[in-house]
Design a protein that fits this description.
homodimer; about 375 residues; mainly alpha; Farnesyl Diphosphate Synthase; two-stranded antiparallel sheet; 16 helices; about 75% helix; about 0% strand; globular; disordered N terminus
Chain lengths: ~375, ~375
């Protein structure tokens, strides 16, 4: 007897399913929030707009990997003439979507607390939650207290999203053993992300020395763990994959995540601002400790760069000047080399234990990296 | 056949059991934290010192209520000649202790984020986690960035404690149904506490109008819910008490919590600073919107008080002057009356459905209120 394998879902269908799940999670809380008055309800309304306006990178990575693993599993079962139980499969997939959505809430919780810590009011050219609260508080608040009120909203909403993430993991419709594995994964992820955020802030505040090794560790902890390792490991756990597959995926994910972060740094400094949409010199003005800067520090060009680094009043002319120095001293090429190394490491993990369908998902995500401008 | 009822535990034994549980929870994480370097490990070490130096009010309330409910239950069973299963009872009590400890972590998570929001560096005359990080960063950090580094530590450590609280609830050794009820309770608690914190900040920042009703709602949400309602409801759920008992306890807890908060405000303004240890005029200097002030605003004395309210440079002489006005205009007596009403409402709840042993626990906590100086 042959089993028809489940349809490979298009990315649009997946986005819709993730969006529906997130709408449900947030909508339920947003309507309960009205009990506590308009200011509390406003937090949930703003968070809902921002979360639902996202690109769902992490949930998509989880679900596409999950579907690919299930596909492989079903193909094997069909080969062995086993019978799939489609109602169980549907339930399992719903659970996977609930975890994927929870990971998006975690992402947004991290973004919010990061925005509070960095004093940011804008994300992707729009006011973030804090910026919106500040604009709305303008007329009512005591002089100078609007920012305090708005940042308080950022801290508190981050707390509620962190709580909501845990609630979804804790309530997942799974055998308790599996739920505990996902809870372990969540705990590990939060520890690494917090450690990465602390390193990043320590580098910026001059508490921690900016050597290349520390910067690479920071990028891995702060971004790669929750953006790649978490969705990939969760997908493997939910699909019942072998531990060897889970580990290979996690390792590949960490390398891919580091490549993404390094690419981001390159784009911010050397990319075309008409395409990536950021201030091309903001990293230099802020004195952001990136791998580019860490390499430049080790070259004879550093004494010429240093006077301009971390200067809020950096002119466009000076910015272009520094950018040329960073290219000429080899820092740009050095970071391009690091990205190549990371992508090579991804490829190395994708041979062997990883099923072909899953490999394609990873290569697709890696491919987005190469064409990406922002 | 008569069953020997379980021993009524002394408060010292309970404190030791709670302390052991907290040491285990924090110690495990503190040692895992060393993987991420000394700065990350320092967060856990400082949090551990602060949490373990606490008075465990919330875990004690939970455990004393739990033990009293179990006692009642056992007495009834003995009467009906049923047999208790002591190994099950021991396991259940261990679970109760783990939830009690998790509630202490939640308390500390709230305190930390509250300290970040209020810019506080000191708690109970000692540097809080942020104050300690600031003192330690002093020599290394870039000029002016020590406070940023320290407050970042406060936000991040609060996040980790909030996560740890959820992990304990999610892993509780209980039937999934009961675990879900505790997770509901945790979600409700966090919503109310966050709503209360937001109201408090909104009152301080002048975004929300300071009428008496809003201030009383704020006190209930910000403090009474997680300090009294949460431990009492959790105890009832864990002990398998009737829903009527749980609700009566929760209502009594909210009234008791409000009484505590109002008493705190009275002590801060009118109490003997040699006994309560706080700056006697800090509430006035900060312009804290309390029930005392809300009442004073409604009297003809307000125009004489207002010029001094929220003045950071308030002198001792002026402070004493304002305090006399607050007494003479009836604000002190008004708040004393509110406290009486709340305590009366506690007593009303304690007649009827609540078992005698549990009533004694509540009366004991209410009694501490009356003799309390800080």
């Amino acid at each position: 007897m042959t089993i028809t394998s489940s349809t490979v879902r298009s990315r649009t269908d997946l986005c819709t399913a993730i969006e529906d799940e997130l709408s449900g999670l947030i909508g339920k809380r947003a309507s309960a929030a009205t009990t506590y008055g308009p200011d509390f309800a406003r937090l949930w309304a703003l968070a809902g707009q921002n979360v639902l306006g996202g690109k769902f990178v992490r949930p998509l990575l989880l679900m596409e990997t999950y579907d690919a693993l299930q596909q492989t599993h079903e193909d094997q079962q069909a080969h062995q003439a086993h019978h799939g139980n489609s109602s169980t499969e549907t339930r399992q997939r719903e659970t996977a979507i609930s975890i994927a959505a929870a990971i998006e809430l975690l992402h947004y919780a991290f973004l919010l607390h990061d925005d509070v810590i960095d004093g940011d009011l804008v994300r992707r050219r729009h006011p973030n939650l804090i910026g919106s609260l500040l604009a709305e508080a303008g007329e009512n608040s005591r002089a100078g207290s609007g920012l305090h009120w708005a940042q308080t909203g950022g801290i508190l909403m981050g707390d509620m999203l962190l709580a909501a993430t845990h609630q979804s993991f804790a309530r997942a419709d799974l055998p308790h053993e599996l739920r505990l594995r996902l809870l372990d994964l969540l705990e590990h992820t939060i520890n690494e992300t917090v450690a990465g955020e602390q390193l990043d802030v320590g580098l910026g505040d001059g508490v921690i020395a900016p050597d290349l090794q520390t910067i690479l560790v920071m990028c891995g902890y702060k971004t790669a763990t929750y953006t790649f390792e978490l969705p990939l490991r969760a997908a493997a756990t939910l699909a019942g994959a072998d531990f060897a597959v889970e580990n290979a995926l996690a390792t590949a994910g960490r390398h891919l995540g580091l490549a993404f972060q390094l690419q981001d740094d390159l784009l911010s400094t050397f990319g075309d601002p008409r395409r990536h949409g950021k201030d091309p010199f903001s990293d230099l003005r802020e004195g952001k400790e990136t791998a580019i800067i860490a390499h430049a520090r080790t070259t004879i060009a550093w004494p010429d760069i240093e006077p301009f680094f971390g200067k809020p009043e950096l002119s466009v002319g000076d910015g272009e000047h520094v950018r040329r120095y960073l290219t000429d001293c080899g820092a740009e090429a050095f970071v391009q080399g690091l990205i190549e190394e990371q992508l090579q490491a991804v490829n190395n993990q994708l041979t062997g234990t990883i099923p072909a369908s899953v490999r394609n998902v990873m290569l697709d995500f890696a491919g987005q990296l190469e064409g990406r401008q922002s």
